[in-house]
Amino acid sequence: MHKDEAGELYEQAREAWATEQWQVAADRYEELLGHLPDAPSSAAWWYDAALAHKFLRNWDKAFTLGREAAARAPRGEGDPAFWNLGIAATVLREWAVARDAWTGFGITVPEGEGEIFGSFGICCVRLDTDSAREVVWAVRLCPTRARVVSVPVTPGRRFGEVVLHDGEPKGERTVDGRSHSVFDEILRFETSDLPTHTVTVSAGTASDIDALEAVFTQQGYGAEPASSFQFLCTCCSEGSREQTRSVHAGTQQVSVAAPANEIPELLDTWAAAGPKRSWSDLASVG
Asked: Where are the beta strands (DSSP E) in the chain?
């Protein structure tokens, strides 16, 4: 390929990138790489081509091009080529490649083969479903997967589902002086079989509500009082915020996640354990 032709393809790719025309950018980079796969600047081209396909959610292409980008990146130095490959490999459940990608980035993962189940801390994930955006708490299983441990109020989302999230934090929540990153969801990786219900409860004290949550969490289920939710604009949601619990006594709605046939018994157990505790109006929301 003539130098001028290569330069023209590169400029077209960059112009498309600047206007977020990801398919055009990917096409131009791939055409360029078809002629100059190992040029001095090719590592960056492979990376950008793979990243464009990540934005397009074309995971097969992101995986194939990402492997080329990672092969040209330094290992153990936090190069983003490994991170993007780790995401694409995880989506495709190519676990051997995912494990190698995280190691190449510089992250230690549990030894073994297959799916990664580690302890990567607590984070928040911004769910994105049909324009509804809700920040939930989650436990990270690997650098890009997390299990939801809040009871979402977004229709169709559930406690216990596993989501795949991006690597760049978009916000921060601070609880008791400890900060937790907020990551944007890329996709729902695994569904949950625990349906969400709402119930109206009456409690004499705030500690009664804490006890209600404990009854469910001790069984591996979830409970969230309505008073714990905050509605934020996009700017505030993507900023840094101090998170405080606002649980109170009285009558309020609680969202619970548990097998439908077990919920009444759990609520009865809670109500019988203290005075001024009662519940009513149990309803399924999906």
From this structure: 122-129, 132-140, 145-148, 162-165, 172-175, 178-190, 196-203, 222-225, 240-242, 250-257, 278-284
Q: What is the pLDDT of residues 191-215, one digit of tens each?
A: 999 999 999 999 999 999 999 999 9
Which amino acid is present at 14?
R
CATH code given to domain 3-105: 1.25.40.10
In CATH terms, the fold of domain 196-284 is: Alpha-Beta Plaits (3.30.70)
Of the candidates 192, 196, 193, the residue with the CA atom closest to the CA atom of residue 263: 196
CA dihedral 180, 181, 185, 189 (to 10 degrees): -50
DSSP character for 208?
H
Domain ranges within the chain, ordered by starting residue: 3-105, 122-190, 196-284
pLDDT digits (tens, 9 = 90+) for 100-158: 999 999 999 999 999 999 999 999 999 988 777 889 999 999 999 999 999 998 888 99
pTM: 0.89
Question: What's phi and psi for 181, nearest 5 deg?
Answer: -75, 150
